[in-house]
Automatic annotation (TrEMBL):
UniProt cross-references to SMART domains, sorted A to Z: HTH_MARR (SM00347)
Taxonomic classification: Bacteria, Bacillati, Bacillota, Bacilli, Bacillales
Keyword Repressor: no
Domain of life assignment: Bacteria
Location of the HTH marR-type domain: 5-136
Record Gene3D superfamilies: Winged helix-like DNA-binding domain superfamily/Winged helix DNA-binding domain
UniProt protein name: MarR family transcriptional regulator
InterPro entries: HTH_MarR-typ, WH-like_DNA-bd_sf, WH_DNA-bd_sf
Keyword line: DNA-binding, Transcription, Transcription regulation
Keyword Transport: no
Family annotation (PROSITE patterns): HTH_MARR_2
């Protein structure tokens, strides 16, 4: 008999890997990777953030975030601007990223729709509730 708890986490891990691969297949032709999309999405929906805030939100170590932000900056998708604390800069989307955002969003929505085929809105709401409750257990 399978341990449901272990199977749940195995399936979450497998789903995440496969969905990241699907996202990359749809985003790479547009000049973006799924890990970069997570940052772009956060900046678009929540506004400018510090590197520390982005690292905390995404659960990513500082060196990884530094590399990813460097690539986004080199591509012209983000800019660093002075924050209220002079020691820490805020990161914001550039005009070029805001122009490209609808194209990225369309690719992401296409990936989501493919995966959510035959999944009801009620099931989505239930999953969101479960994921939030599980995430709250980290803190």
């Amino acid at each position: 008999m399978k341990n449901n708890q272990s199977e749940l986490f195995h399936q979450i891990n497998q789903f995440t890997r496969h969905f990241s691969k699907l996202l990359n297949e749809n985003l790479v032709p547009l000049g973006l990777y799924s890990a970069q999309w997570a940052i772009i999405y956060r900046l678009k929906t929540e506004g400018s953030s510090t590197q520390k805030e982005l690292s905390s939100y995404l659960g990513v170590e500082a060196p990884t975030m530094t590399r990813t932000l460097g690539r986004l900056e080199k591509s012209g998708w983000i800019a660093r601007i002075p924050g209220t604390d002079k020691r820490e800069k805020k990161i914001k989307l550039t005009d070029a990223a805001l122009t490209e955002y609808p194209n990225w969003l369309k690719a992401v929505r296409s990936s989501e729709e493919q995966v959510l085929h035959r999944i009801t809105n009620t099931e989505i709401v239930q999953m969101l509730d479960l994921m939030k409750r599980m995430k709250d257990n980290f803190y």
